[in-house]
Amino acid sequence: MRVGTRFFALASAAFAFAVASADARAADSSGAAPRILSIGGDITEILYDLGQQDKIVAVDVTSMFPPEALKDKKSVGYMRALSAEGALSVNPTLIIASDEAGPPEVVSALKSSGVRYVDIDDKPSAEGVPNKIRHIGSVVGADDAAKTLAAKVEADFAALENDRKQIKSRKRVLFILAVQNGKATVAGAETSADAILKLAGGDNVAASLNGYKPVSDEQLTEFAPDVVVVMHRGGGDPHMAGQALTLAGLSQSPAAKTKSLIAMDGLYLLGFGPRAPLAARELMKSIYAEGANTAATTP
Amino acid sequence: MLEARNITVKRGSKVLLSEASVAIVPGRLTALIGPNGAGKSTLLRVMAGEFRPTEGSVHLDGEDIRSISAARLATRRSVVAQSINLSFPFTVLEVVMLGATVPGFGVRELEAATSARQALRAVGLSSFEARTINELSGGERQRVHIARALCQLSAAPRPSSETAALLLDEPTASLDLKHQADVLAVIKEQSKNGRAVLLVIHDLNLAAAFADDIVLMADGRIVGRGMPDDVLNEDLLSHTYGCRLRIETGIDGRRLVFPSAITDRLSKGAVAE
Amino acid sequence: MTTLDAKLASAGTAVRPSRRKVFVALTFLLIASAVLSLAIGPTGISLQALPRAIAVSLGYTDDLAAARDRLVLIDLRLPRTLLAAFVGAALATSGAIMQGLFRNPLADPGLVGVSSGAALAAVATIVLGQGIGAPLIAPLGIYALPIAAFGGGLIMTLLLVSIAARQGQLAVGTLLLAGLAIGALAGAISSVIVTASDDRQLRDLTLWQMGSLSGASWQKVFAIVPFAIAIALLAPRLTRGLNGLLLGEAEAMHLGIDTERIKRIAIATTAAAVGAAVAVAGIIGFVGLVVPHIMRLISGPDHRVVLPGSAILGASLVIFADIVARMALRPAELPIGIVLALVGAPVFLHLILKRGIGGSE
């Protein structure tokens, strides 16, 4: 009976393998240098800025800055689709994770695994960034470096606020997350895009919406922004930038008439990591530049 | 033994059957004949218990079949439908065994296989046992289902005092001549062995050859019943079928029925009436 | 006899392998897959650590390394393996039942609306859970999604049954068509809700629809136990009924089968099984369609073999797929739906080309 023998063979192989496989765990480094698992692009950035990069053993896939992070370190995948055993397999002594990490069962398993698990509040705001920095600094024992970094960020945000007050007439800005099938998804209130737009002194025309929402051409016409902001994946993505202004709903907008389109790197712009004030400042500069036109900026 | 009393079946405004009463008796083969649309199949299905008539009732040994469970009914009668669409690769033996492995029969696998083989032998398909049913021709498939119905009757646990009925709807429809004769012979033997047989058949000559009783239907009504010689008369048939029919007596004394339009044309070469 | 003659001669003949051999082989395969699943994982901990792990469970030791072993073996891999087995068995058995009920080898458990109902409920929970739906959903915590998915599947099935039921009789044809229509409607409503989602919710949804066992936990295992028992009790009652139903409803009735009862048990079993599976693992396709096919290719269409065989084979398949899901890209994870499709589809194609579909040939 052909099939049965095949099953038997497969099963026996599996059995043998299972029973015979020796322990292949990574060398246990208890007591030695801390091993950090960083989950969240902004958290990884902060760790690098605090000079803690050598302690990081693995990151999640949103940790795109600095580029070395994903190149040098192992990746545990997308931060909302973690694997408990996968995370544990990198043998971390400390897990620093955005509060957006998931799925919830995996997070709870990691929290009860005996490894120290630190939740980082990831709400996008000017106060949030220095708080994050200080929190992470205290966790990894780099309080001084954290204090300095946080202070710098605060100072930068304060300067930014000053400059914001100087703005006589605020420009109307629209953030487009994506364009699919000719339909644009824009950033409403309660998004990191909205937060950074406001920090840059812009007026979010889509603030009446909540979250990232797809909108009709008619609504776009109503928005009539002066400037449109989009993301690109560092290195420049001309397509999206080009598409945005050609949307029918924007054709009559001041943005289209003055060709005012700004494209910035996604993590830089929205990550609310330590570069946040820089991103906001660049954005502000681009929005209010004299004779504003297409400006693609990369950090 | 199985009696339909005043069956009326209405579907919306259409009347399929109108006050039809038929009774079949153990040891006799009753043929149900008539033109298309006469309601023959409908009557058979009502008698099989497949659905309830709008009016009237069916009785098994005097008991209304509405109060008999499907499982108990299955021990007393089996049915061969006109066509069965089976799209799964059962073997012939497996299909016939479905007749024996009825839930509630309590028949063991081995006994079921034996019953099935007997039934297959009866319809002349013994060598087909391991073939997949999808590979068979229409006629062969029909015989398999007949075997299944036979198997069901022989495997059913039934006190010897109880008789069984076999209901068949056009079992010879897709069979070639040799098999038509063979199958009808098997069915006739079933009736000789004490089963009550109801046979819906459109071939009048076959009906004449094999039936003990004939029931003639048209437009949902019964227009004639009795022994073949009585029912098969030219006027009644011509009227029912709406064309001139001639009855001849064949070599062995049996009735042979011809639409006379054909024979007239053949003999005279003239236009028929 | 040339090989052609031999082929022609054997074409259309079916020699069924001994039932006992088939079940022994399948059981062996299942046990082996389960043991393998316990033995393999990204942390590299092997079965040799099992005695230590058990010692910790029983309270004999406090050693940190042993505690880690216990966590991985007993709190992560074991519930995951059990859940994978349940999901595989539930989906495969339901697939076999649906193929018998609809007399169609291409039927799939989703046809009675369970999957689309569960998906709709999941979409609503993920997207509206923090907005409009918060008061309802928040208190349920991490159980919100599974409970919603299960509830959605159940409601959809009941809706479907009420549409297809006429005078106490379930019309299978109506069931099929209504199922398709309702599925389309549920999909449309889902899409509407999705337009209100933000980027993160959209990603969560996409992941859920690819299926994953990474959220396995003992709570989920306990939650599915009643369903596993229900399936184990109900499915065997369907075998002969489904065999008879394959001939047609009227013929089944002639054979003494209570067709209405069979239909209802079939749908109830499927709804419970698929609802529970989707609730704990998200949408996992392919298993319900393909595993019964493979069983039929091995042992023929008799449901007395196909139903239990599918359960065992389905369980093994999903366990193996889960092993691949968590090892292929470690320390990251592949959604299991993708693994099943990537590996299973070519295998299935190969089977079809070699032996023909296990339905109409």
Quick description:
The complex is a heterotrimer of chains A (299), B (273) and C (361). Chain A is an alpha/beta fold and 299 residues long. Chain A has two domains: 36-150, Rossmann fold (3-Layer(aba) Sandwich); 168-297, 3-Layer(aba) Sandwich (Rossmann fold), CATH 3.40.50.
Give an overview of the whole structure.
The complex is a heterotrimer of chains A (299), B (273) and C (361). Chain A folds into 2 domains: 36-150, Nitrogenase molybdenum iron protein domain (Rossmann fold); 168-297, Nitrogenase molybdenum iron protein domain (Rossmann fold, 3-Layer(aba) Sandwich). In chain A, 43% of the residues lie in helices and 18% in strands. Chain A is built from 13 helices and 12 strands. In chain A, the strands form 2 sheets. In chain A, strands 6, 7, 8, 9, 10, 11 and 12 form a 7-stranded mixed sheet that branches. Chain A has a 5-stranded parallel sheet with strand order 3-2-1-4-5. Chain A is flat, with a radius of gyration of 23 Å. Mean pLDDT of chain A is 83; it is low at 291-299. With 273 residues, chain B is of the alpha/beta class. Chain B has a domain at 86-161. Chain B is 36% helix and 26% strand. The longest helix of chain B has 18 residues, at 138-155. The relative contact order of chain C is 0.15. Chain C contains 15 helices and 2 strands. Chain C has a single domain (19-355), classed as Orthogonal Bundle (ABC transporter involved in vitamin B12 uptake, BtuC). The two termini of chain C are 25 Å apart. Chain C has a two-stranded antiparallel ribbon. Chains A and C meet through helix 1, strand 3, helix 4, helix 5 and strand 9 of A and helix 2, helix 4 and helix 9 of C.
